[in-house]
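Protein chain data
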Amino acid sequence: MLNRRHIRVKVMQTMYAFKGGESDDFSKDQKFLLFSIDNMYNLYLLILSLLIEVQKRAENDLQKKQNKHLATKEDKDPNKKFVNNQLLALISDNFQLKNQLEVYNISNWELDSEYVDVIFKAITSSDLYKEYMTTKVSDFKEDKDFIVDVFKDIIAPNEKLYDYLEDKNLTWLDDLPTVNTTILKLLRKAKNTSAEGYFTPKLYKDADDKQYAIDLFRKTLLNRSVLNAEIGKKTQNWDSDRIASVDYVLLQLAISELKHFPSIPVKVTINEYLEIAKEYSTPKSSVFINGILDKLVKEYEGEGTLKKVGRGLM
């Protein structure tokens, strides 16, 4: 689920908030970094559980109509195609997902059910829903295609849901694109024979990614004065007040990665931090950062201090 760019963003945010020096104890900050990353999984479970709650809401709606005192023929014999959607049933019945929802105590929608109603109404009033409900029978593929379209076009871009998540946890806004992309991929590739653990993917691709987050944070902090000196040599003609704080942090991280992570290609490091700068800093930041890193890489190559291992890492 988690990619290296998102790890870099999390480390950048923690570095930006860090107010101590190299000699200070930063164990709490490291714990915060890992907690911030782990909390992304809570967001994943929360959004996926919303699909389950929407299906429950649809079922309750049908039951209420059937129990009306003056129920119509349609109320008594409703179209249950959405309620019986095979992909939603697969998600709802997934044992490992149920277990994870309990372990992480994902019960938001019980207290904030109005947001389930918001999504339910947005779905049932859409043209997607009206077209889907023109028949009463469907196969797994049709059910899946419908849920994929609903998630992509209705749930993911919903502004009220976005505002709700922002109120619950500010860091979730940075996590949301990655989480939504993960869920969309899982929905698209789902099969009616999907393995039990299909809807509970690992947060980290492997143990190396988690260690990378820790090492990037620690090695950057422990070498901050050296990194700042490197930046200072290349920005002598710049007023320090004109350099955005985020740019400083991104340069520290990028230089640390160039010097202390021999298995990461130079081009990957530079491109990743330029993309992050475009999203999180000023319009001119990527050009500024690219200029500094380009000078430093040429300098390191000339000195023979840029140690990269493996083919194609330069």
User: Anything to note?
Assistant: The chain is about 70% helix and 0% strand. The first helix runs from residue 4 to 17. The two ends are 27 Å apart (CA to CA). The CA atoms of residues 22 and 223 lie 7 Å apart.
